[in-house]
């Protein structure tokens, strides 16, 4: 027995893991923990951004509503002012109409008096005729030299009426 017997070497796996596998697993666990932390931070930041956007939208809606309310109030004041102005203009028009009616009535009474006076008195009509003839002669003299000038305007000056109406405002 002098020959040596060579037995094959068998490595029986031990109950422990290989150190390389331990390193890979530890890196995976660290990566998983960091992803959870990063996801939580992103989620929290996104929630804060959504809340901030909601606050900004609420603020914008409040200011828009406030501006619309101010605009509606301005429109109401403008409409009220227009109504007051229209009422004042109507009052002025009514006052002018009353003044014109009174002047017309006064003028009608005066013309009736002149007509009745000229109708009853022949001499009064005769004098009136001379006055009209004298005015016609004056107009004929001045009309011959100034052919380019137009006849005087028949519109009357309403400054006195406007002053009276201004007193009622």
What features would you describe in this structure?
It is a single chain. It contains three helices and no strands. It is mostly helical and 169 residues long. The chain has a domain at 21-120 and 161-168. The chain is rod-shaped and about 175 Å long.
Layout: helices, strands, pairs:
Blueprint: H1 19-120, H2 122-145, H3 159-168
Task: Give me a quick take on this structure.
With 169 residues, the protein is mainly α. It has helices at residues 19-120, 122-145, 159-168. Helix 1 crosses helix 2.
Strand content: under 5%
Helix coverage percent of residues? Answer: over 70%
| Overall 3D shape | rod-shaped
Radius of gyration from the CA trace?
56 Å
**What's the average pLDDT?**
79
Query: Got a strand count?
Result: 0
Low-confidence stretches: 121-135, 137-147
* Main sheet: strands, sense, barrel: none
Sheet/helix structural class? mainly alpha
In whole angstroms, how far apart are the ends?
148 Å
Helix count, per DSSP?
A: 3
Order of helices and strands: HHH
Provide tags for this entry.
single chain, 169 residues, mainly alpha, 3 helices
